[in-house]
Amino acid sequence: MTVYLPAVPGYPQAGTALHAAGLAPTDLVHIVEYVTGDTPELTDLRHDLLGGHAVPVATVAVEALPGGEPYAVELTAHPGGGELVIAHEDTGLHRGTLRIADGVVYLPSIHPCDAHGLVHPGNFRDQYRYCLERAADLLKAAGLDPQALVRTIDYTATSTRADYPRCGRPRRELLGGTGSDGRPVFPGAAGILVDRPVLPGAMVSLDAIASTVPLHTVNPGWARYETLSYKPGVAAGGTLFMSGFGALEPATQKAIFAGDLAAQAEFTYAAITAVLREAGLAGRDVVRLIEYVTPEGVPGYPGLADLRARYFGDVAPTSVVCSGLLRPEFLIEVVPVAVFR
């Protein structure tokens, strides 16, 4: 069974958490590094933990971490480490390692650059398409196509907020496979604004996950998703991957509770619960919560602990501070993962 560990502030702490869960570095199938600036020691620290174990790594630039740490590490593990797939030579941020466990395909972070780190010169939509095409190249090594993607978390600069809807066209053209029920399935998605690009000139980076098994859309009946290039939830085998949720009223598509973090969080948690219920799940089935908080929401964020526990029990969130969210009124966006037990 796959184990999802929340982000901790450093590789030494990550190793301790892994050991406490009864796992070893050779069980790792995915690592996400949330970095707040230049951290040249990361490569050595990662090597100290992994040794020669090859793992797909997503490097995500963030505005800050709630505790002020320079970086945090989020681990996903599976006893035995799943299946290793080498798509191409691992060179810098152009990483070519994938792992497959329980039908889930873990990819490295995807940036709009070539193997030499040269950034694609196009506009936002061109770079977004380039990233999806890179995902397709990686998945091809696993015998899959981009229609196998179940979720993307898109990291873009605040300056691209107005252009973000333009990524809908490449998503429609390259994604949207046929689900187990014969209907089209677009992957889940979250759009997070970060003004610290991993590479200068990069307007977007993706953290993507795919599946080797047929997909199934989970939607509580929200009509707005009929016209969008992403879905609120996508079930892939024993896992439910969900889009990013904020305080957005599904019927009117209006952001609500502007300036009120607690009200936004409660609305968001309730929306997540509605998707879980549609899938036959409950809050206790959530195994990962990634919570993106804007700088304006940070002061009130510690006060969400009791509210979160009411909805999801003792799940520990991965908490990061972003530069902003696609709706300017949002103070928090939450990306959940749940399992069918």
Distinctive features:
6 helices; globular; alpha+beta; 6-stranded mixed sheet; 341 residues
What does this structure look like?
The chain is α+β, with helices and mostly antiparallel strands. It has helices at 11-20, 42-50, 124-140, 168-174, 261-278, 305-312; strands spanning 3-8, 28-35, 57-61, 71-77, 83-86, 97-101, 104-106, 149-156, 177-178, 184-185, 188-193, 204-211, 215-218, 233-236, 239-242, 248-249, 254-255, 286-293, 318-321, 324-325, 332-339. It has a 7-stranded mixed sheet with strand order 5-6-7-12-8-11-20, covered by helices on one side. A 6-stranded mixed sheet has the order 13-14-15-21-18-19, covered by helices on one side. The protein has a 4-stranded mixed sheet with strand order 1-4-2-3, covered by helices on one side. A hairpin with a 2-residue loop joins strand 14 and strand 15. The mean pLDDT is 92.
Q: From N to C, what is the helix and strand string?
A: EHEHEEEEEHEHEEEEEEEEEHEHEEE
Which bin fits the share of residues in helices?
10-25%
Kindly estimate the percentage of residues that lie in beta strands according to DSSP: 25-35%
Major sheet characteristics: 7 strands, mixed
What's the helix count? Answer: 6
Count of individual beta strands: 21
Poorly predicted residue ranges: none
Q: Assign an overall shape.
A: globular
Q: How far apart, in Å, are the first and last alpha carbons?
A: 10 Å
Strand-pairing-aware structural class: alpha+beta
User: In which order are the strands of the major sheet placed?
Assistant: 5-6-7-12-8-11-20
**What is the arithmetic mean of pLDDT?**
92
Task: Evaluate the radius of gyration.
Answer: 18 Å
